[in-house]
Amino acid sequence: MKKSVASDTPRFLSTAVIQSFQEGASHNAAAAAQHGTAQCSQKEQQEKGYYHSPSWYGASPGTRMDITYFTAHQSSRWNALFHDLYYTRNEPTAPLLRCPACVTQRLRGDVAMLPRTGSADLSASRAATETPSASSPLWMDPMELQRHLSYIHADELFTPQELKLYNAQVLRELRYSCGLAPALTPVEGELSTGVTSGARKMQPARVILVVDVANVELGSPGELLEMLLSSKLLRAVTDFPVALCATHELFVPAISKALHTLYQLSRRHPASTLHVFFANTSLESGDLLTSSYLNDLFLASPHCAVPPVVMLTSDVQQQRALTELHGAPAYGMGNGGHVHWVKPLTAAQLVVDLYAALESSQSLL
After folding, report:
1. Alpha helices in 117-163 (DSSP H)
2. Do residues 337 and 309 touch, judged by C-beta distance below 8 A?
3. CA atoms within 13 A on the CB side of 88
4. Is 213 exposed, middle or buried (0-12, 13-18, 19+ CB in 10 A)?
């Protein structure tokens, strides 16, 4: 005699009990689906190899990926170095960068970054917007960002006004990193800063390293590689936290060697940070942007000494402008900051200037 297959739904006499059972089953299914989505998202982030959760105020986020796009001067040595980081040492190789256009739209509140498919996903969407995940479209590896800027924002970012909000936010993060100002939530109630709003950094940067990406990338790419191979320089940036600032003109690809070099240096100390300022492609736009955020930084707090600034650039005109604005490197500026530029632009000289800047800051305490 064939045995009947029992139904998955129990036989209840009361319709109220049946309705209650069905609602409970639907709730369990939704919870299981949400749990599975969270596990998939976490697994996806692990597979992509993200390091440090991307946040507006925090350690420089990066990703572990096989880098093979260095094709210019000394490309074989560059690819060999990052090949070793990826396959042998199992370490992150590339920084995660924010799209300046998307950040500007987010700060303005013009677009909703997360889709809203239904009322059932409303709470999950709110949680995701309060804490941006590593899969947020704001954060991309250099290759993704370059494609994104080329295809999505090809007709944007031609004027300084279009980059104003983004650079202002990066400047706020730089002030926080230097201990000059507390962290501020970019959009109240929407974006997480990664730290408590109004809190100051426990271990601020001791030195600010400013790099003119276009000048160094085109003029001294070989020295960038030597910086990653110099044991003395790596030891120096391991001893104390550094705020690394990159003035990046948009005509330089996001896959530049300078950004990869700065990211690797920022990884040497847990309190070091990387701050990328974007400038539009126009005459002297990078120099003007560098002077602008340095001036704003020196005026950030009348009660706190600004960490000394070390400049990586071979631009004689920019060096002359800094001298005229802030005095010679041996003299203080305003509330005690100093500007040093690395000359000649070598890894060995950078080590000397970093320690000289650190000593000058000690004399101001």
Report:
1. 122-130, 142-151
2. yes
3. 6
4. buried
Instruction: Give residue 189's region: left, alpha or beta (phi > 0; psi -120 to 50).
Output: left
Tokens representing 332 are 């203080």
Q: Which DSSP category does 56 fall into? A: S
pLDDT at 213 > cutoff 90: yes
Q: What predicted TM-score, i.e. pTM, was given to this entire model?
A: 0.77
The strands making up 62-63's β-sheet, listed across from edge to edge, are: 50-51, 62-63, 94-95
Q: What is the pLDDT of residues 263-305, one digit of tens each?
A: 999 999 999 999 999 998 777 788 889 888 988 888 877 777 8
**Phi and psi based region of residue 10 (left: phi greater than 0; alpha: psi -120 to 50; beta: remaining):** beta
Cα gap 268→235, rounded to integer Å: 8
Residue 87 contacts residue 256 (beta carbons within 8 Å): no
Secondary structure (3-state) at 193: coil
Q: Tens digit of pLDDT for each residue in 144-167? A: 999 999 999 989 898 888 999 999
- Return the structure tokens found at 11: 């036989």
The residue type at 177: S
CA 112 – CA 100 distance, rounded (Å): 16
What's the one-letter identity of residue 13?
L
